[in-house]
Amino acid sequence: MDLKPEQIEEQRIEEQQKEQQPQEKQLIIKNPKGTRDFLPQQVLIRKQAIKIITDIFEQHGAVEIDTPVFELREILMGKYGEVGGKLIYDLQDQGGEILSLRYDLTVPFARYIATHGYKRLKRYHVGKVYRRENPSISYGRFREFFQCDFDFAGENDPMVADAELIRMVDQIFTKLDLGPFHIKVSHRKLLDAMINIAGIPKTQFKTVCSSIDKLNRQSWKEVKQELIEQKGVTEEQAEKLSQLVQLKGEPYQMIQQLKEQKLFEQQGQEALDEMELLFNLLKQMNGLKNVIFDLSLARGADYYTGLIQETELLGRQVGPISGGGRYDNLVGTFQKNSIPCVGAAIGIDRIFPIIEEKFKNSGKVFRENQSDFIVATIPSHNIDMTAEKFKIYDLLWSNGIKADVCYRLHWNLGKQLSYANEQQIPYAIIIGEDEVKQEIVQLKDLISKKEEIVNLKDLIKVIKQKVEN
Amino acid sequence: MDLKPEQIEEQRIEEQQKEQQPQEKQLIIKNPKGTRDFLPQQVLIRKQAIKIITDIFEQHGAVEIDTPVFELREILMGKYGEVGGKLIYDLQDQGGEILSLRYDLTVPFARYIATHGYKRLKRYHVGKVYRRENPSISYGRFREFFQCDFDFAGENDPMVADAELIRMVDQIFTKLDLGPFHIKVSHRKLLDAMINIAGIPKTQFKTVCSSIDKLNRQSWKEVKQELIEQKGVTEEQAEKLSQLVQLKGEPYQMIQQLKEQKLFEQQGQEALDEMELLFNLLKQMNGLKNVIFDLSLARGADYYTGLIQETELLGRQVGPISGGGRYDNLVGTFQKNSIPCVGAAIGIDRIFPIIEEKFKNSGKVFRENQSDFIVATIPSHNIDMTAEKFKIYDLLWSNGIKADVCYRLHWNLGKQLSYANEQQIPYAIIIGEDEVKQEIVQLKDLISKKEEIVNLKDLIKVIKQKVEN
């Protein structure tokens, strides 16, 4: 049976957690549920993926900011819909301010804009966010996970910044090369119109919206059941809604179909026009090829006001790998005059197993010890070889050379070289009495086993050439 | 009156927080007390400083890891002394595991070693840690702050890894070029010996140690008062302790003095020998020049077992800018057999105002918009200039060129160029009807005001040259 990388990861973690239960102690020495330790190779891979993403953000003129991992609880209240609101991690009241861990990087961004009085900012932010979700490794749902957010705050003509955003998302997932993907787009006001057309009262909009948002992980049948049993929606209303929210397709075909069927003539027409404008702009900037117009798209958070988007990887059972949209009124909850905003979050953790699998298949080797050199000594009765050894380390380190120390000073040469081999260190600089007297070293390539004699005064020049090759 | 950069920062933040109090709302839109938002220029400066530090960690063969921002509360309990233990941020019990925010990166490292079964690891970790301290901006004391930690776990000969660590700390602060500094070193077992020599009972060691640790921010008089009034130490014991803990100086002079006075002959002799060995190794690797042997050094955490170290900047009233030492038994609190460890944390936040001041004095300009190009259009009645504009953006972005969009599509050329000037974007690519027909662009340097005509097919080549210069 072929397992998907996320399933392999799930098995690995489950097994690891089983092993972690020592018999003699009650406390299980593990990371908290729904979180992960990142091993050195994983940190490296994650950094490379983040660099691809942030390079593209910077291409669009964005600058990086940082905010605290917790916010005043009141700042976060009432922003994330009925589901999201329950998933916020609260800090215990230990006196002083009442705090919660951030749930996303969007509300902290809006708070930041208000706190510092920005009128316009194109920023990106890479950081961990926290949700008390039921964790699912295969779905890529964690309680602590990374987001890479790009947002633009400021005045703009309709759909211009929105189109740039979608093109950027397209460029990121094309560059990350994870396989085929769809960028699903819709408009929050179309959703409102659909709920209204179905005859559901306005007071139910938010709660119905929360149910529809579950369509990215549940079937329509399940969502319909929830709407009828928990949200007071009638069978007839649900049927009407069902016909609407299940419409999706190639952007221009959808526009044509919706126009022909005159679905949004009475309401939502303006939003539909905006979507058509978006597609025109995207076509002009060559960003339309992976876009799908999907009327089932809802997004859980309360703050969206216009475009909404999510990216899904085709043929993978992971959740959305990007999400976002336009939220023109959120800054206005923090200050008198709002500032329109549009943005997207890229979910690094959901794509991480795929990137990791690609790295492994690439045949690239990751060394847990990144040193290129070790200094090994031949014991002597006449000379303090420890002093001579560290003289060379000083030379190496002062010149920025990566060099690891074998912390056993009295090991013989063979043992020192075995240590270097174990650590996958490619070169050894070997010195004994003769080398010290003649001011030379033996430079040994531990893979090819070739040795050469190098004058101490040329050492840095010679090894810098080796490292560069 | 000349203000120190940290005082200027304090004033700035105070004023900012005053301004942040809107009259009409009760909720103050601000970041939590003791935390900071980092503005784009600050993130850039911080990243540069972190790169200097982590490059040096990598030079010594270290690899990066990452752990969650919270840990099971039990993992952190009983590790940080009587003062530290009270400063841990607890998460509210919302069902499930009982969690706390990490207080440092050291205990999570020891937990990581145990969880993953490492026998040997040289790792670094850059992350935020959390302490419910009374914040003081001028002292550089925050509730959320960055640490850059380097630690080595594994067997080693006495003081070899310890010496490498001190040399690394020396190299880091030399490279950061913040002005003169002292690396204060001592040995936890010397502290135990001194408390014992003063006649204080063994049961009081930890609590007396906590008081002595305050010497880096309080006078001996204050600490003595605490010892007598709160810790049950007699006047005579305090007097005896006072004579010992106030000894400090150049390493070899101290060794000589302590030997002559035979202070540690009965106990602590082994620790003193280890200190002498440390100095010998450091001398050999050229890392002794900024080291001070300081018997007042205590370190608050309970887990230290050997070398302890702190770095102080001379002439600045900020707290220690590095701290750490040897903790051979900490991993042993999580598994049957301990693994000896030694490490140091570099406190980026304490040195940040100084690095920021240096950046400002360097005359370097930081642009909040990092774009190099904007595409500006001359309006036309015959051609869809928006389409032509985004065709060029597609070309730029597909080739990794940093280009910002003016989100107003109907502004005239002058307004578009004003926008570019405001954003400090150095170049504009200008197109009108004629340019589109002839497949050329005007490339304008917005600083020198020079213009040139470039063929569209040569555009990427020409502007890549400009960016590289």
From TrEMBL, chains A, B:
The lineage of its organism: Eukaryota, Sar, Alveolata, Ciliophora, Intramacronucleata. It is an enzyme of class 6 (ligase). GO terms for cellular component: cytosol; mitochondrion. It catalyses: tRNA(His) + L-histidine + ATP = L-histidyl-tRNA(His) + AMP + diphosphate + H(+). Residues 1-31 are annotated as: Disordered. The keyword Nucleotide-binding applies. It comes from the Eukaryota. This is Histidine--tRNA ligase, cytoplasmic. One of its GO terms (biological process) is mitochondrial translation. GO terms for molecular function: ATP binding; histidine-tRNA ligase activity; RNA binding. Residues 1-22 have a biased composition (Basic and acidic residues). The keyword Protein biosynthesis applies. Keywords: ATP-binding, Ligase, Nucleotide-binding, Protein biosynthesis. Its EC number is 6.1.1.21. Coiled coil: none annotated. InterPro entries: aa-tRNA-synth_II, Anticodon-bd, His-tRNA-ligase, HisRS-like_core, HisRS/HisZ. It comes from Paramecium primaurelia.
